[in-house]
C-alpha cells in the first residue's frame, strides 16, 4: 500500500454561510411540521382516537393500513366443510 500525506481540508466562509442557511431552513421546516401536528391534534381526531373504545381504535388502524379481517366461522361445519363423521 502506498503512503501519502493526509489531504488538508480548509473551511471557507462560503461553506460556513451555506451550513448556516441549511440549518435555518431545517429548523423552520421542523417548526412548521410541529405547528401542523399541534393543530391536527386539536381538531379532535387525535382526541377521538385516544378516548374511544378499543374496537373502533382497532378498526381505525386496520382502515389506515388497509387490513380487512375476515369474520371467523362460528360452527364446526363451516370450518371443516361438509365432512360427515
TrEMBL record:
<keyword id="KW-0539">Nucleus</keyword>
<feature type="compositionally biased region" description="Polar residues">
    <location>
        <begin position="73"/>
        <end position="85"/>
    </location>
</feature>
<comment type="pathway">
    <text>Protein modification; protein ubiquitination.</text>
</comment>
<comment type="similarity">
    <text>Belongs to the CDC26 family.</text>
</comment>
<keyword id="KW-0175">Coiled coil</keyword>
<keyword id="KW-0498">Mitosis</keyword>
<dbReference type="GO" id="GO:0051301">
    <property type="term" value="P:cell division"/>
</dbReference>
<dbReference type="GO" id="GO:0005680">
    <property type="term" value="C:anaphase-promoting complex"/>
</dbReference>
<keyword id="KW-0833">Ubl conjugation pathway</keyword>
<dbReference type="Pfam" id="PF10471">
    <property type="entry name" value="ANAPC_CDC26"/>
</dbReference>
<keyword id="KW-0132">Cell division</keyword>
<feature type="region of interest" description="Disordered">
    <location>
        <begin position="34"/>
        <end position="85"/>
    </location>
</feature>
<dbReference type="GO" id="GO:0031145">
    <property type="term" value="P:anaphase-promoting complex-dependent catabolic process"/>
</dbReference>
<keyword id="KW-0131">Cell cycle</keyword>
<dbReference type="InterPro" id="IPR018860">
    <property type="entry name" value="APC_suCDC26"/>
</dbReference>
<protein>
    <recommendedName>
        <fullName>Anaphase-promoting complex subunit CDC26</fullName>
    </recommendedName>
</protein>
<dbReference type="GO" id="GO:0007346">
    <property type="term" value="P:regulation of mitotic cell cycle"/>
</dbReference>
<comment type="function">
    <text>Component of the anaphase promoting complex/cyclosome (APC/C), a cell cycle-regulated E3 ubiquitin ligase that controls progression through mitosis and the G1 phase of the cell cycle. The APC/C complex acts by mediating ubiquitination and subsequent degradation of target proteins: it mainly mediates the formation of 'Lys-11'-linked polyubiquitin chains and, to a lower extent, the formation of 'Lys-48'- and 'Lys-63'-linked polyubiquitin chains. The APC/C complex catalyzes assembly of branched 'Lys-11'-/'Lys-48'-linked branched ubiquitin chains on target proteins.</text>
</comment>
<dbReference type="GO" id="GO:0070979">
    <property type="term" value="P:protein K11-linked ubiquitination"/>
</dbReference>
